[in-house]
Amino acid sequence: MLYLKCTGIVQKALGLPKTVVADAIPSSAPLGNWYVNRFDTGRRKAYVFMSETTLLSFILFQGKKPVTTETLPTMMLGGLAQLLQMRGMGEEAIERAMLPYHEGVFAKTDSRPDLGSLNDLVQRYQWLIEYEGGLDRCDLTGIIMGINNTPQRRLGWCSSWDMTQSKLQLPN
After folding, report:
1. CA 62 → CA 33, 35, 44, 55, 70, distances in Å?
2. Contact (Cβ atoms closer than 8 angstroms) between residue 24 and residue 108
3. pLDDT (tens digit, 9 = 90+) per residue, 22-38?
């Protein structure tokens, strides 16, 4: 089960009534449940996704059509597969990461530390995109890879990539 723990901004953007937003249960998936937030950069709407167990993150931009409750889980899964491929992980690792996520369910954010990490990621993505000259000039792949290579205090000073490799039981 793929629990997307949406911030209030995302819930409002998707038009999610409170009756549809579930309480997430702990996940046995290697990368756990996922947090989702939305922010503006330039004139574009960006969605940031973060694994609650590894703090692995990536951003995707809204296209011409609005993101809906049907498209957000598909967006997330496509983005995760692409991120793992860009990192050079094999099909076996990608399948191991994706297999538990057979159905998308929307949930409330339920962890202040995770929400704090997510908000920190939003600020770092925004700052780095602007620092590198905006969306037209920045190396977005480099930004995403760099953020995931940054040691995290919450991970015992390991990077999100290190934790992801460990959770997917891959050799270094």
Report:
1. 22, 17, 7, 22, 14
2. yes
3. 898 999 999 999 999 99
How many C-beta neighbours within 10 Å does residue 163 have? 21
Task: Please report how the helices 71-86 and 91-98 are oriented relative to each other, as an axis angle in degrees rounded to 10.
Answer: 150
Pair 140, 125: CB distance under 8 Å:
no
134 contact partners, CB below 8 Å, separation of at least 6: 41, 42
pLDDT digits (tens, 9 = 90+) for 109-168: 999 999 999 999 999 999 999 999 999 999 999 999 999 999 999 999 999 999 999 999
Domains of the chain, by residue range, sit at 2-167
Q: What distance in Å separates the CA atoms of residue 117 and residue 53, rounded to the nearest whole number? A: 11
Give the residue among 53, 47, 56 at the shortest CA–CA distance from 28.
53
> Residue 22 has what DSSP assignment?
B
- Hey, what CATH class is 2-167 in? alpha beta
Dihedral over alpha carbons 126, 127, 132, 135 (to 10 degrees): 10
Stated pTM of the model: 0.94
52 pLDDT exceeds 60? Answer: yes
